[in-house]
Amino acid sequence: MSIGIKTPEEITEMRLACRLAAEVLDYVTPFVKAGVTTGKLDQLCSDYMTQVQHTTSATLNYQPPGYSPYPASICTSLNHQVCHGIPGGKALKKGDILNIDVTVVTPNGFFGDTSRMFIVGEGSIFARRLCQVTFECMWLGIAAVRGGAHLGDIGHVIQRHAEGNGFSVVREFCGHGIGRRFHEEPQVLHYGTRGSGPELKPGMIFTIEPMINAGKAAISELPDGWTIVTKDRSLSAQFEHTILVTETGAEVLSLSAGCEPPPKLITGALAENTARAIAALPSAPQP
∠ CA(29), CA(102), CA(233), 5° rounding? Predict the structure, then answer.
């Protein structure tokens, strides 16, 4: 496995790409409400990318070997959908939980990737707890990152927190390196053993994006060839940030003014630096 180390110039470009991806989520947030279709959310995000940011969507017409082209500019995974849900005519209703996953490509050819959970209306106590624990899982994984740590440290802490709260971790999908290509090395598993896997080195950039199921970890694929669902139809949640490995920890690249700060269980320099970075960011321009 060859994991690239980004140059200072590439890191600067990635900060921009990831911030732009996060700003798409900021923009679409007020529209995520009962009665709005996921297809409408896709159109709003697409227009914002192309007309305001002058970016393009990495997912639109994305076609890995053996797949049909993905037909939308974002992924919208609803309730028991784990990932890669295709936007369409289904209207949101109160109590739904929704993951929106955005990957933009800048005019300079850099990819920025991030996703968030949205709860339509108040949501059930159980749904809110699943989303909160998933958010905590992502941040615990981020907190495990530093030069000299190992990839397995990330998965270990995520798995321990998810399973300790009675949830399960999806095995078949993982985080990934990112830069001038959508998917690069390494693969970042969200389960594993502390001290295993390649050593992390400053300058590596990858996503941490745990998919946490309320029921069992087993998944299946819908006939559309893209949408992944929980086999037992239990709820599933996911959060995603793109991070940069530094000498002393991690820098979260996919921050924007609308990002939620780290949860209370994350303390120290990571929490302080991230909260300060979010507060310093200007709101995204409106169309």
Answer: 85
Domain spans of the chain? 8-280
DSSP code, position 260: P
Cα pseudo-dihedral 223, 227, 229, 233, rounded to 10? -70
Task: List the one residue out of 6, 39, 2, 3 whose CA is nearest residue 179.
Answer: 6
The Cα–Cα gap between 191 and 168 comes to 10
**Three-state SS for 209?**
coil
150's tokens: 């190992």
Mean pLDDT of 15-34: 98
Fold category of 8-280 in CATH: Creatine Amidinohydrolase (3.90.230)
- 70: number of CA atoms within 13 Å, CB side? 22
Tens digits of residue pLDDT in 104-127: 999 999 999 999 999 999 999 999
- Name, in order, each residue with C-beta under 8 angstroms of 76's C-beta and a sequence gap of 6 or more: 38, 41, 42, 85, 86, 87, 98, 99, 100, 101
Whether the CB-CB separation of 100 and 75 falls below 8 Å is answered with yes
Torsion angles phi and psi, residue 185, rounded to 5: -75, 150
DSSP tag of 94? T
